[in-house]
Amino acid sequence: MEESLLQVIHLKKYFPIKGGLFGKAVAYVHAVDDVSFDIKRGETMGLVGESGCGKSTLGRCILRLIEPTSGEILYKGMNIADIDRRELWRSMQMVFQDPMSSLNPRLTIGYIIGEPLLVRKMKKAEIKAKVIDLLTEVGLKPEHYGRYPHEFSGGQRQRIMIARALITNPEFIVLDEPTSSLDVSVQGKILNLLNDLKKRLNITYLFISHDLSVIKHMSDRILVMYVGKLMEIAPKKELFNNTLHPYTQLLLTSIPSPRARSYKEKLKDFKIIDLPSNINVPKGCRFQPRCPQAMEICKKKQPIMVEVRPGHFVSCHLYS
Amino acid sequence: MKEKPLLEIRDLRTYFYTYAGVVRALEGVNLEIRKGEIFGLVGETGCGKSVTALSILRLVPSPGKIVGGEILFKGEDLLKLSEEEMRTRIRGKEIAATFQDPATYLAPSFTIGEQTSDVIKAHLNLEKSSKRRRLYDRVIEVLKRVQLPDPWRVIKQYPHELSGGMRQRVMIGMGTSCNPSLFIADEATTFLDVTIGAQILRLFVDMNRRYGTTMLIITHNLGIVGEICDRVAVMYAGQVVETCDVDLLFNNPLHPYTNGLLQAIPRLDRDVERLKEIPGTIPNLIHPPTGCRFHPRCPQAMEICKEEPPKRVEVEPGHFISCHLFGKI
Question: How far is A74 from chain B, CA to nearest CA, in Å?
Answer without folding.
Answer: 32
